Amino acid sequence: MIERAGELAALGTASCWVITALSFEASGKRIGSLSLNLVRLTLAMVPLAVWGWFTRGAALPLDADLHTWLWLGLSSLVGFVFGDLCLFRAFVYLGPRLTTLVMASVPVWAALFGLVFLGETLETREVLGMAATVGGIAWAVAKRERPAEPAAEDESEDENENESEGDGPPALPGGLLGVLTGGLAMALAGSLGQAGGLVLSKYGMADYDAFAATQIRVIVAVAGFAVVVTASSWWPKVRVALRDKPAMGFAAIGAIFGPFLGVGLSLIAVKLAPTGVAASLMALTPILMLPISWLRGEKIGLAGLLGALIAVGGVALLLL
Fold it and tell me: What is the pTM of this model?
């Protein structure tokens, strides 16, 4: 076994999610988040089946017992369905900066849940590394400068277009305060859902293959989102989305690096490393995005760079 294999898998997850974020940003602006969630998970079933066939001789996880299906299925509903729905709503209410800031708390919740439900304890070095990593991420996100005015206008136009398609948020009472409170509640619920999903995955997976476990989670998530789409009368929009070839191309790329490689590596990470440590390293995506943001014309600022350096220092502690 490679030393620190779990931590390295977590870093691989964060790297995959950079590509996923860019792909889903391009696709989501065209077809909306709900259609994208269903499409991306459905597309991910193909590479997962191929991987299972070549590595285990089984295209489907039919060898998993009831305990594995039950807990991994629950982790999927909590993390994939509930967590992602809350996260996408929070992005609409709060915008990416505040939402990402709240989501930086996922490693804290994951460590707490791991302690309470799995009996995981952390060394002092790991606690300090987590604190530096999470603190650096939060600082870098909080101190990022807003994009230039033309980009802000373009983003507003995209949001308005999505809202006109019915993907916007419902009105909340209390005006701006109500929107802020509702957005924070959604972001917090999303962070709790993602942390809970990780812990439930670790418990349900045990010694089972990580990518087969991912396949179980994806199958249950597809069923969960199908229920949401049906309840929302969203199938006509899904059919329209399927005819959008550019959106489907971006969704396919995101499906490979997200639900397939990204989630598969994340389960390897929580299998081999403490949940809080793995979650801290997986949360590095905003830091890894900084060079891309700079290339896209966004000003990073000194505080953002210092936050990134602190996060990298935390990673170094976790990998010692």
Answer: 0.87
